[in-house]
Write a structure and sequence with these properties.
By secondary structure, the chain is mainly α. The protein is built from four helices and no strands.
């Protein structure tokens, strides 16, 4: 009985090794295609940047103002959500378990706080 198991395990190991070798040989025939080069996001032409620096400065300023506006809106939203959560927590008694709604609101606050943190870092 033990010898039968040993023969079976050895046969399976040989079959797996054979299949792995065949797969490697088949994959060697078709080399992987290289990934496409990354496309730069809104990268201006360097010749245009040197020809019109005022336009580049104006575009940067507009982008910064938009980022600042989004950041301020995010902070206001965070303040509103934390206020709502605070009111809900004050309404519940300490003997009760927190509701699913409270947990979801806390998760939403965490996500928003993480986004604002990344924006504050400049990301």
């Amino acid at each position: 009985m033990v010898e039968t198991r040993r023969v079976f395990v050895l046969a399976m190991a040989g079959a797996v090794g054979f299949l792995a070798a065949e797969e490697g040989r088949l994959l060697a025939q078709y080399p992987p295609t290289p990934p496409p080069p990354p496309q730069p996001a809104e990268t201006p032409n360097p010749a245009e940047a040197h020809s019109n620096p005022r336009a580049m400065a104006a575009a940067k300023r507009a982008r910064r103002q938009q980022d600042e506006k989004e950041f301020r809106e995010g902070v206001e939203r965070l303040y509103h959500l934390t206020g709502e959560l605070r009111e809900e927590v004050q309404k519940t008694t300490t003997t009760e378990v927190l509701s699913v709604h409270m947990v979801k609101k806390t998760e939403e606050i965490e996500k928003l706080a993480k986004i604002l943190k990344n924006k504050a870092k400049g990301g």
